[in-house]
């Protein structure tokens, strides 16, 4: 009995210490989450309670041209940015994993851009990609190439944003680098005994054993790409110009919720985004069994 009372007391203390986090989770996450489901079926606008309108918000979304432009831009960004970030991140990590004098300095240089706030990053690239006096077009002009309008062009605006985002992949590179250093040297020694060259080691040893890290960055990259907001919002002052080419899904959601106070409409958009991300994440996890390899398995 005494032992049971001690265990009960320990459990009680455990719940008491965890209660601030649990209460915060309930009040600031679970309750708003449940409320947003209800609001997505209403005309709620912060200032007014709104009326229940069923699936009208969702039907209205299907007829919203800006909504579909935002969906296209977001998918475009995810399709190109995520694979490019993985390929460039792995390549950079491979180079930064080499035993070269002063490598710590190079690693620091590649990581530094991730410390720059995205608003400051957007302002910096606005100057670099300025079509009239920007550094990029200035360098292209010296090579005899007429630089495009970049952010002022409907065609080049999204590639410009992808370029900016790739400049800040240092955090992913650090994760890849940690994954590379976790691979046992024994695998490389065995491959060398079999006569494998550097490229064959990378292809048959490094990449298969790095797939858990690649998978992690893939999932996080997809989620982050679908939530792209700060860079395009800062670059276009929330307008998504030119011609909605930089209007992203979360930007349109933000506009409806906090600019037009259409919280019911914004809640419907938020739940569609949640379902899309959950579906894509589920597909990635389902297919990971075919290509993700863990050491010792």
From TrEMBL:
InterPro entries of this UniProt entry? ABC_transporter_permease (IPR051393), MetI-like (IPR000515), MetI-like_sf (IPR035906)
Q: Where in the cell is it found?
A: Cell membrane
Write down the membrane topology: Multi-pass membrane protein
Q: Does the keyword DNA repair apply?
A: no
Q: Is Metal-binding set as a keyword in this record?
A: no
Q: What is its main location?
A: membrane
Q: Which Pfam families does the entry mention?
A: BPD_transp_1
Which keywords does this chain's UniProt record carry?
Cell membrane, Membrane, Transmembrane, Transmembrane helix, Transport
Domain ABC transmembrane type-1: start-end pairs: 71-284
Q: Which domain of life is it from?
A: Bacteria
Mark the transmembrane ranges: 12-39, 66-96, 108-128, 160-178, 207-226, 268-287
Q: Which family does it belong to?
A: Belongs to the binding-protein-dependent transport system permease family.
Name the UniProt record assigns to this protein: Sugar ABC transporter permease
Taxonomic lineage is: Bacteria, Bacillati, Bacillota, Bacilli, Bacillales
């Amino acid at each position: 009995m005494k032992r049971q009372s001690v265990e009960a007391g320990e459990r009680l203390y455990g719940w008491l210490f965890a209660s601030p986090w649990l209460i915060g989770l309930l009040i600031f996450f679970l309750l708003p989450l449940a409320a947003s489901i209800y609001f997505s079926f209403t005309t709620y606008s912060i200032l007014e309670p709104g009326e229940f309108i069923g699936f009208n918000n969702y039907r209205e979304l299907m007829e919203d041209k800006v909504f579909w432009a935002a969906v296209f831009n977001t998918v475009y960004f995810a399709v190109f940015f995520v694979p490019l970030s993985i390929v460039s991140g792995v390549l950079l990590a491979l180079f930064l994993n080499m035993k070269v004098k002063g490598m710590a300095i190079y690693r620091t240089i590649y990581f530094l851009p991730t410390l720059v706030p995205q608003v400051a990053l957007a302002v910096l690239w606005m100057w670099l990609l300025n079509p009239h006096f920007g550094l990029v077009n200035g360098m292209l002009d010296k090579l005899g190439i007429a630089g495009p309008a970049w952010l002022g062009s409907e065609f080049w605006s999204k590639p410009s944003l992808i370029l900016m985002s790739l400049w800040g992949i240092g955090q992913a590179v650090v994760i890849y680098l940690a994954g590379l250093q976790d691979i046992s040297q024994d695998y490389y020694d065995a491959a060398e005994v079999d006569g494998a060259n550097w490229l064959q080691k990378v292809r048959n040893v490094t990449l298969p054993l790095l797939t858990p890290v690649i998978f992690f960055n893939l999932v996080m990259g997809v989620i982050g790409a679908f939530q792209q907001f700060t860079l395009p919002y800062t670059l276009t002052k929330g307008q998504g110009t030119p011609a909605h080419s930089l209007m992203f899904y979360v930007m349109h959601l933000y506009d409806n919720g906090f600019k037009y106070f259409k919280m019911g409409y914004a809640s419907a958009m938020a739940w569609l985004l949640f379902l899309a991300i959950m579906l894509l994440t589920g597909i990635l996890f389902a297919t990971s069994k075919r290509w993700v390899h863990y050491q010792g398995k």
